[in-house]
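Quick one: co-fold with arginine.
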Amino acid sequence: MLTPIKDNLARELAPELGLTVDKIYSLFEIPKELSHGHLSVPLFVLAKELKKAPPAIAKEMAQKLLTKNIAIVDRIDPVGGYLNIHIKDEYLFNTIYQEVRTSGVQLGHSSVGSGKTVVIDYSSPNVAKPMHVGHLRASMIGQAIRNLAETQGYKVIGLNHLGDWGVQFGKLAYAYNMWGAEYPFESEPFESLFKLYVRFHEEAEKNPEIEKEGSLLFKKLEEGDPELLALWKRFVEISMKDFDRLWSRLGMKHDLVRGESFYNSRLKPTEALLEEKGLLVESQGAMVVNLDDEKMPPCLIRKSDGASLYATRDLASAIYRIEELKADVSLYVVGSDQALHFKQVFSVLRRMGYSWWDKCHHISFGMYRFKDVGKMSSRKGQIIRLEDLLNKAVEIVREVIREKNPNLPNFEAVAEQVAVGAIIFNDLVNDRVRDVDFNWEKALSFEGDSGPYLQYVHVRCMSILNKAGVSIEGAAGVSTHASGTVNGARKLPDKVIALKSDEERELIKTLMSYEMVLSEAYKNFKPNILATYLLELSSAFNKFYHKHRILGGEVEFESSRLALVYITKQVIKSGLGVLNIEAPDAM
Ligand code: ARG
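Sure, here it is.
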C-alpha cells in the first residue's frame, strides 16, 4: 500500500539528494504524528559527505525540492535533520484504496523474502504430556511469525520438533508394563498415558530404583527392541491425535513433523564429526563439548550409559534444517528457559566449523507466572491445560452472546472464533520477551484492548457496508457482496475523493502504515507490533465513526467514506488473519 508511493518518491528524491533509490527507500520512516507528514527521510547519512549539520541540509534540500514540484507531494517540511513529506490526500487515499481492492489476501505483502526459505520450529510439544498454557505461547507466537514471514514473501517450512525420544520413553514403557492395565487406554488413550507418566514420577519418589529401570528400557529402545518400539509408536500416535485436535482449534499447522526420533540415524555421524574436529571430551564417563571459554557449562552429547541427549538431537536437526531443507533463516520459537541450551547448541555448531551457525536464531519468549495457581509441573500433573482454558473461554462467550445477540446465526462457530481469538490476542499483544502473569480473569477478559474488541470493529464495518447495500467488486476478480443480495447492490466508487477532516486523515495514515507494520513485526519477530497496531487502527476508526455520519451524511462524501470503511475492514481482517485470529461477519 506504501510501495507505489515510496517508489515514486524515491525516484524523485534520488537525484536531488545524491543518494541511490534503494538507499532512500531504506531510509523512509513513518512519523508518529500526522502533523509531521506521512513519510520522512532522515538526512544524517549525508552529514559527513556534505560536511554540514543535518538540519542545514534539510533546509537546503527542502528549498531545492520546492522548485521541483513533485506531483504526489503536497509539501515537504525540513524539521531537524529530517525531510517531512506530506502526500496529497486524494492521491494517498486513492492509492491505498486501489491496492486494497486488488490485493486480496496479499494485502500489505512484500516480496523481500522471495526465493529464500525460513524454517521455523514452533509448538513442538512432548509426547504423553498435555499441552498447557505455556504451549499456547510456543504455538501462537510461532504461527504468527510464520504468517509474518509469508507476508514478506519467504517460503516457510513449519517444523514440529516433537519430543518423541528420550529417557522418558523408557519410564513410560516401565509404567505401562507395570500398571497399564489399570487405565482405560481404549476409551481415553491420552489421559491414560498422561496418568501413567504422573504415576511413574510419584512411584519414583518412593522408590528411586525404578528410575534406573526406566533408563535401562530406554537403552533397549535405542538399540531397537521391537516390542518397545511398537509401544513407543503407539504412545506417539495417541499423543499426536490429541495435539492435532488442539492445533486445529487454534487454526495452527506445521508442514513437517520432524520429531527428535527422526534424527536417530544422524546422531552417530554428528558425533563422528565432533570427534574429528577434536571437540569431544570425556567427563565423568559422559561425552561433552567444553564451552568454558564462553563461561557456559559443557554441552552434553552422550550420557555415561550411552544414551543420546536433547542437545545431540538438536545439533543433528540444526544441520538438517540448513543443509537439507536449505533454510536461509532457521528459527526456534521456544521459551526463555531454554536460552542456555540454544546458546550451547549454536556455539557447538560454530566450533564445528559451520559458517552458517548465525542463521540460527532462538526466538525466545517469556514464561507465564502463576501467582494464583502456583508453579506448573507436568510430572505432578499440576498444569493448566490449554484445552481447559479454551473451553472456559467458549463458555463465557456463549453467555455473553446469548445475552446480547440471542438470534445470531452460526452461534456455536462464532462463540468458538471469539473465544479462541480472545485467548490468542491476549497472548500476542504482550512483547514476547517479557514474562506474563497468568490470571484467569485477564486471560478471559473481553473488555478494552482485546481480540473481541477488534473482531467487533470488523463487525461494525461489515454492518455499515451491509446497511448501505454495498457490493464489492475487486479487480482481482473477487466479488463479494456484503449483504448477500446481488440485486440492487451498490458499488463502491472507482475513485475516491479526498476526505479532509482530522479523523479521516488520521485513519488513512494509519491504514497506510499496515505494510510497514508487517515488515517491522517480521524483522523483529514480534507479533505484538502488529497486535498493537490493530488496536491503534481500531481506535482511529472509532474516532472517525463517532464523529462523522457515513450513511446519510454529506452526499458527495458518502461513497468515499464507505470506501474508507471497506479499507478498514479489509486491513483488520488481514491483520487478524496474520495473528491467526478469525474475523466473523457478525457477532
Ligand atoms: N519439546 C521441547 C519442549 O517442550 C521443545 C522443543 C523445541 N525445539 C527444539 N528444537 N529443541 O520443551
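If it helps, The longest helix spans residues 226-249.
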